[in-house]
Amino acid sequence: MSTWFITGASRGIGRELVEHLLRRGHRVAATVRDPRRLDDLAERYGERLWRHALDVTDTAGVEQVLGKAFADLGRVDVVVSNAGSGVFGAAEDLSDQQVEESIATNLTASIQVARRAVPLLREQGGGVLVQMSSMGGQITFPGFAIYHATKWGVEGYFEALAAEIAPFGISTVLVEPGMVRTGFFDAAQRVPVSEPYRGGPADTPPPPVASMPGSRSGVANAIIEAALSDAPPLRLLLNSDAYELVTTAVRERLAAFEARKESAHAADHEA
Prior knowledge:
This protein has 271 residues and is an alpha/beta fold. 46% of the residues lie in helices and 15% in strands. It is built from nine helices and nine strands. The chain has helices at 12-23, 39-45, 59-73, 96-123, 145-165, 184-187, 216-227, 240-259, 261-266, and strands at 3-7, 27-32, 49-53, 78-81, 87-88, 127-132, 170-177, 189-190, 235-238. It has one domain: NAD(P)-binding Rossmann-like Domain (Rossmann fold). The protein is globular, with a radius of gyration of 20 Å. β1, α1 (12-23) and β2 form a beta-alpha-beta unit.
């Protein structure tokens, strides 16, 4: 039996992870803004579900709740930073508040959860840090620029962090799902495009959730298997759409770099 700490556990992939783990006999420390949203699971699984209210943008609260979970449970094997939000709209049309809130929730909070979790994992001799990213940390779509900014930031931060904390026996997994049938897209804010962008690339609504290929259950199962494996991968690219889109984008990016090889080397010399 392993013990997991999961943020954003009330819906989507977070909730699916909690349910899968409890059914398999593991212990889960689940954090949500309103713990009552997990009452049904508490009734079913009793003491194997530890709950606490948490707003991940409250850094002091993150430190307090993480510390309490490790103290109450004795050990936490896997920390999953899952909380996140989205906003659709042309980059210019977003309000300053929407930009700041997106960065605070998707990027800054992820960094702060990791910074508070690492010393606790190191003190107990190791563990696994799972960070929810997205195929949107490798590719982009018009109308979703601020989301991509946060996920590309997450990718860079955790790739560097992974090398720093590997000597402590801490593995890092960046989970990169494609479009998954969750409530994420329904909950995302939508900003109507202003006149200059109407009919352009940013003026395209997201596809219906029912048409998305990714399964919440499939994603949750893949995360659990990877985190509990003998060698957790740094990146876990999930769903068929993510695989096709990301691998195509990486090949195209590499080809573009290769096409400019001469100018790259020429910049080594004095003009």
